[in-house]
Amino acid sequence: MAKPIRIVRKHEPTPEERQQQSMHELAQSLTENQAAVQQSLQLVRELHDSGALELVTALLQSREQVAKIAVSQLQKPAMTNTINNVMEVAGAIGQLNTDATKKVMSGVVNGMERAADVLEKDEKIGIFELVKALRDPAVNRALSLAIGFLKGFGEKI
Amino acid sequence: METCTIRIDGREVEVETGKTLLQVFLQQELEHPHICYQPDLGPIQTCDTCMCEVDGRILRACATQVEPGMNIERLSARAQAAQTEAMNRILENHMLYCTVCDNNNGDCRVHNTAELLQIEHQTYEYKPKPYEVDLSHPFYRYDPDQCILCGQCVEACQDLQVNETLSIDWERDRPRVVWDGDVAINESSCVSCGHCVTVCPCNALMEKSMLGEAGFMSGISQDLLLPMIDIVKEVEPGYSGIFAVSEVESALRDTRTKKTKTVCTFCGVGCTFDVWTKGRKILKVQPTPDAPVNGISTCVKGKFGWDFINSEERLTTPLIRKGDEFVEATWEEAFDLIGRRLGEIKNQHGADALGFISSSKVTNEENFLMQKLARAVIGTNNVDNCSRYCQSPATDGLMRTVGLGGDAGSIHDLATAGLVIIVGANPAEAHPVFATRIKRAQKLHGQKLIVADLRKNEMAERANLFIRPKQGTDAIWLSAVAKYIVDQGWQDREFLAAKVNGFEEFCASLAPYDLATASEITGLSQEQMIRIAEMIRDADGTCIAWAMGVTQNCGGSETSAVISDLLLITGNYGRPGAGAYPLRGHNNVQGACDFGTLPVWMPGYQFWSDEPVREKFAKAWGTELPSTRGKDNIQMVEAMHNGTLRGMYLMGEDMAWVDANANHVQAALEKLEFFVVQDLFLTRTAQYADVILPACPSLEKEGTFTNTERRIQRLYQVMKPLGDSRPDWQIIQGVANALGANWNYEHPSEIMDEVASLAPIFAGVSYERLEGFKSLLWPVTADGTDTPLLYTDGFAKPDGKAVLAPLNYVAPLTATEEYDLLLNNGRLLEHFHEGNLTNKSTGIQHKVPDTFLEVSPELAAERGIEDGATVRLESAYGAVRLRVLITDRVRGKELYLPMNSVSDETAVNLLTGAGHDLRTNTPAYKQTYVRMQVLIPRGQSPLPRVNSRFGKRNPQQGVEVHRKWKRSDYRPLDEATQELQKQLLNQELSEV
To answer: Where is the 4Fe-4S Mo/W bis-MGD-type domain (chain B) (predicted)?
Structure first.
């Protein structure tokens, strides 16, 4: 024989009970992941000793402000220009033929070594040596390459 | 299946004829660009990205049919140029910020197509549109700035949902999607069905629940977000880089966004869809073309009505009555108490002193366990479910005539019938997705529609023929139509001779009901009835769908039998596009009946007193079956009143409000010695309980539901039970074990396996066969063959022949001098039944905060009342007090009171209670008569202006892409459209 009722006596956990429940769940998590937790502690310790932890914490705390600053810096024309230029250069590098680059670079290296030798010897050259140099197959090749480069460069600009 | 050979990209392929190129590409799993094609809508040709080169001409793949010998180049220079140009035009309308966009979930068509076409830079600069974002609607928003004008939303609204609210104003300088005649979404005729948001290929239309939640960065505040987007644009990287980043972000989302398939928990259509969740937060409901019943369709409840899952009012611990309050208890305490008290009552007064009320909302497995608990553990047949209030008469009528109590076919038959007749049903509001298929068939494919109802509901407005017979006289006009058909010789003689018994007796019973007599009784004209007969004669397949307008009457089962008779004499069974469709109301009321929570039917419709049946179950369950006939709901209420039923275990049913004669039922509940209620919320019924058990809704458990098509579908667990609530099957098991049952089911699939072994019509049902979006329509043979269409091999009767039931007219109750107004009652679109689930949704409450009384303009004038008047209605059983809405949906002295109320002031069942169906005891809810007393003659309308009923629809022929092509700024990419553009412009010139 039951009249209709609606009141529910809810058991509201006291703050102590809630804390106890939380602590219990936390302890369980810690024990289940003991190895990982201990390693994390080690990492945190290192970060703390080096001062990096404090720095990163501060950065995160002010993350929105920092993000806004970063974004407003990035928005400056000089910045977007730089990014654009870097991207263009990177793009261009992507188009260079690797073998050609290899040859050119090994040439540069060798050339630098020869130049260093010359500097040490402190040789002087006159007109005669110049003309002889033009007939040197290596120098000739270098000059042809340079002219070829100038041609190609001139075609595109 | 006819095939032919064509060449695609230089390769010879054999393909089905009758398909479009795009369909073939998708079938062959070739990645081809397309944005505006949706399988459930058909091609609408608005995005132009699917262009390809066919035999030298540029054509749209979506709209071009396969022809033998075709040579198709999808990747030729010309094809790619056209595709890229089309994509660029789209990007002019849409800002790409995928990484921070809520739609970047791997399925964004704009993103995926732009990526596929390897767009590096867009050729047209993005141009924002001069319109504000529309945030007015509670569930979704439209951002014109992101809208690519693909028109899928318009096409879906106009031709699939056929609510005809959306259109694109192509003639404007900057076209946009408009609602009705360009009003705010929340002030339009939008019924919140969700089609438009579901089909939108980008983030122009988004569910509000997704905004700021779906992505890791999509919730960033605007003052940080916009500068970030600007930087990316200034830096002008190629899109391939940006896409890579957004792909990564999208992949990250997958780790956090869960997508789980479920079956809708509301009505009997049985829509299935994926629920996207983030923890317990529901991000959105996403239907898919893979869903067998609904495809991409939904209604407001299925798409947006899930707030109740996380409602603060959810029960989360068992409660035990102590004095004047309920006290929280543990499951052990609850089970102990229940086991002890139920056991005591059984021992002292016998098993039949206990009653079991099952739920039409819980799963098949849970229903099976409930009746097993009643029969095998307690030893009583006193078990019933709410089909008693609803379609039991239809089941009775069908079992008498054709042998099985279920829909003759599926939604596809409703969509392909030549004629659909709806009697006493309101599918546009009660089975919305079914109604969409009927509306679409009528609008696009010439299907004819007849509606017989007291009320001018949406389907009545759209009907080719709308008749309004006097309440409860449907059996007469149906019989008169049948008699006329036979008199004219239009019956299907072959069918009758080969497959049907009882024709002579049936015709004899029709003799008194010639057209003149029928006209007299029903109030219809003879012409109307003749017209109906003619339309049935002329139709290639007739489906008759009916619901409470037929069944909730004293003659409900007899009328249902006559409907079946009419279909039988015209040969409308056992063939596609025809048959009987009693529309089941709940998501699982069909399943509840199928799995045996009925007093006289065991699982699988095996009669309780058949000896072989009793032996089989006794052997399987290790106990004798009870030998007393069980009581139904109504008989149990009587038994509670006279003290013979002393204890009850009720699951998922707000009996105090949904039974007829609420006062009487509530008084009965008070008399119970021990009452256990299992539910999600502390309902009115639960207020009478001694023990309340917290159960889980569909999203928190596994199981299956059976919809009105007899289709069994699996639901998967989306999230864990809330608090200490448990799935109903676990709770029932706990109660059974507290009574010594020793059950140990570990998963619902085990329960289904047991049922399959005991019920022949479910022999081949198993969880493997129901995985994903697969489904089975029973009967299912052991090898897994199911039955989408019934009776193709004969009827479910001993000799394979149907039996015509002779007409037995039960005249309805009528008005008296004291109670002079008819109180029609039923559902409404936005709320589900009494509203325990949907009244937890803020958006739905915003649209329909309360129930209201529909009064006709004539009656209002007579009684001197206006909109918002407060009136008191009184019947022989009780009284309510509520506000009035004046509408011509009702006429004369007929009122309509929707059932969405759990309040002592306004619940309709305080007034019902007169009469029951002759054969099944279903209360005659529809034969309620009241008197009205005016308390306050005018006031604030009980239905807010934002309700869709006040909007004005804007019917169009779909998206009407030709109006886009007529624009001077549209340059066609293919020759055919170019030709068409010239024609259209010439036409216009000549009309000037």
So the answer is: 257-313
